[in-house]
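**User:** You know discrete backbone vocabularies at least as well as I do. Would you mind producing a protein record, from residues through to fold? Write it directly below this note and I will take it from there.

**Assistant:**
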Amino acid sequence: MSVFVFSKPTLLCVIFCICSILLFPEFVTAGVTRHYKFDIRLKNVTRLCKTKSIVTVNGKFPGPRVVAREGDRLVIKVVNHVSNNVSIHWHGIRQLQSGWADGPAYVTQCPIQKGQSYVYNFTITGQRGTLWWHAHISWMRATLYGPLIIYPQHNASYPFAKPHKEVPIVFGEWWNANTEAVINQSLVTGAGPNVSDSYTINGLPGPLYNCSAKDTFKLKVKPGKTYMLRIINAALNDDLFFRIANHTMAVVEADALYVKPFETDIIVITPGQTTNVLLKTHHNPQQTTFVMVARPYFTGQGTFDNSTIAGILMYGDDHHNSPPSSSNNISIKNLPIPTLPPINSTSFVFNFTNKFRALASVKFPANVPRNVDKHFFFTVGLGSNPCPKNQTCQGPNNSSKFAASVNNVSMILPNSALLQSYFFKKSNGVYTSDFPSVPLIPFNYTGTPPNNTNVSNGTKVVVLLFNTSVEVVMQDTSILGAESHPLHLHGYNFYVVGQGFGNFDPKNDPANYNLVDPVERNTVGVPSGGWVAIRFLADNPGEYH
């Protein structure tokens, strides 16, 4: 598998390759086969009074909802009609025995070129809840994304009362500029990429942005009912705070895994994460319209979209949730705007994430690896690459380029897919298996940064034997500013057994690990100026993280 850690200016990547010579029996399921077709096409879309051509799935922004049940088989044919190369990742799907369907370009597959197609064929085994899909090449996921909803098997129920209605809320971003031009310019100059012009809820920017009152997400509800909000953060890089005025939410699921319910009026959601919450509406609301808002959490030194998106919660008999028409503009001038934590409120984020606990029940146990076969300590952060000769760079000190790295190794994508290279035993010249398990040069990771900020560059992997129990400690660094780093593990869930501030202490910190009911996820944020420890069992051969 391969671990992709998305950082603000670029991509951090560590590749774990799980090897096995075992043959597995076919998984027994009682599901059905569901067919979808994704036509990748250009579509003119108008937001913020700007019309531009964007890459879409089936002409929709955001893309279509994929729905299945636990045990179902999904067969999704993707046909590329645009000049950009494309691949689609099914974020959070375990891909048991179907690693080639995972989707990251040049990792599990070569990208789909113009005029070509690719069929993603996989079975959903032992999973139910809210996940999502998105493009997994360059910045194509800025417009290519959508919900992936997995219902429990027939005759199975939620571990909570069935809600009156379920509503996806997908956070995204909108750029007036071409997003591929934005990231390409950043890669050339070495500076952080230009920020988005707005955030979106289900593709709509809302009334706090210019010319956008008509493009406001409205959640219409009935009094005294319970609604399950399936919240997805599809923003490229930003953690987000979210709140609905005068309402509380009960968190019941994270990354398609049930958690011990807890109530909150504000949630924090990292890029790539999903969170299901139960919203109980008031029986006799004092007003019929309430504002919901989201805004980024940010501690780094780079650029980011420091704006707020708003939507509307509306009480009434009509529970239809389609976007309002252009003749139904929304005004929030006389409505109270809910307050959110300060934009750099690391303490709030840390305390919120500590509230997540696995159900750890008989039906949904927490099978945390107690004994660890392989320990890894990965530093995560920003460094620099020297500016090429005869080129002007706009990175650190205007003389270099920003580069994200893990253990000071910045990933170079190969020209052929890693999984294919491994399978056909043609890995020579494609990757090496010498990724360092610890930093080669230890330093005070969250203290005074070293003078030399240069990174090394390569395509390196870690090879694991099947059924290896693994612990990975991800340590943030302050080399070019401490910040939160989202970590997503492809093909696996993992247990978040510990987190803290400052430098990880291998002698004392493990004593405080939660090995009883740690939250199980597929995406976690490495705390700004701190560390997070995860454990998982490498039981999915052929997958890359």
The chain has three domains: 33-151, 165-316+336-354, 374-538. Residues 1-12, 20-29, 318-327 have pLDDT under 50 and may be disordered. The helical segments are 179-189, 346-353, 418-423.
